[in-house]
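Data availability (excerpt). The following record was deposited with the supplementary files.
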Amino acid sequence: MSVRVWSIDNIKEQRKQRKIEEEIPFTVAGEQRSVTKTMVNGEMQMPEVTKPLGELMTTDSDMVELMEKVVLDVELGRERVPTVYGAIYDRIVDANFPRVLEAKWALEGLVVFLERLEGGDVKMGTVAAEEGPIAKIRNWAAGFEYTEEMLLYDHTFDMEMLNRAFGEAYNALLNHIHLHPIIDVNYTGDNQTSPQGENGEPFSVQLAKTIKQGQKDAANHRRPADTLLLSRKYEVDLEDAMERQWYDGTEYRPLTGLDNIVFYDGWKTTVGRKEYVYEGCPDNTAYLIRSQRGFKELVKHGLMIDGQPGPIRRLVEECVVGRTYRGIFAAVEENVQEVDITEQTG
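Predicted structure:
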């Protein structure tokens, strides 16, 4: 069985092998439109803008042309920071989601066949909901402004940088809101696996032993794991652990039983002298996850970019706002085994 690797660099490389065409929605002054995003071998086809930036805000048709460029610049930024949580979450899109949702989608059928004796009743199956927090749809938004000076001096390059940073920040947010709930938990007791292996063994051997023990612990508590989440700093050792290894005359079988490996190291940026940090997977820790059933990505609507005339009192010619309405359901304790992968040294 092949293992799929979910990392920013790996996903970017995979997308270079495909031709991608998508319709990306946006609005201009309240009117909904869309532009076609086309990527071939990792290169996005961008519209050629022949007019100075300031002239693109003089007529409605020019504004549409400008917003098409803005949206595709944002998409180019999103391509630089792909989302990596897709192996873990089941994605549900529904424009009719209420603000607060019960966990009716995280259901499990419970049925058993028993021998029925004459005159006896048939044992009826039931449906049980996965335990976990109630999901809430939340609004996430960001914006930027095109000032009179940007238009006057045709700061097209600055505009493109801002648009692409907008796209990077959006996908970084998606990774954070889906993976942070798994990372930021104080796991205890049955949800923890201690380091395995002996002092002096290669770390890759210890890593394989520890993850195998974590798989056993997760299975023993009825949450068999199919996905491993950890920092990319362990990538090389993990690759060794997934091959047959020899040490001190002993052969060690490769690590198996995983469908997905997710590498996540967070993201950070500085806006207005304030640093914003999305923490990645901590050192010496990995997470074995039973994916999909207890993890739901709930999308009321995805990223929508809207362009509106800006307030003239601040010499703002155009305001661009992007927002999304979404939530998550994450039954973490019922589906995650925290594995301590600290190297044992002498």
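Summary of structural features: The mean pLDDT is 87.
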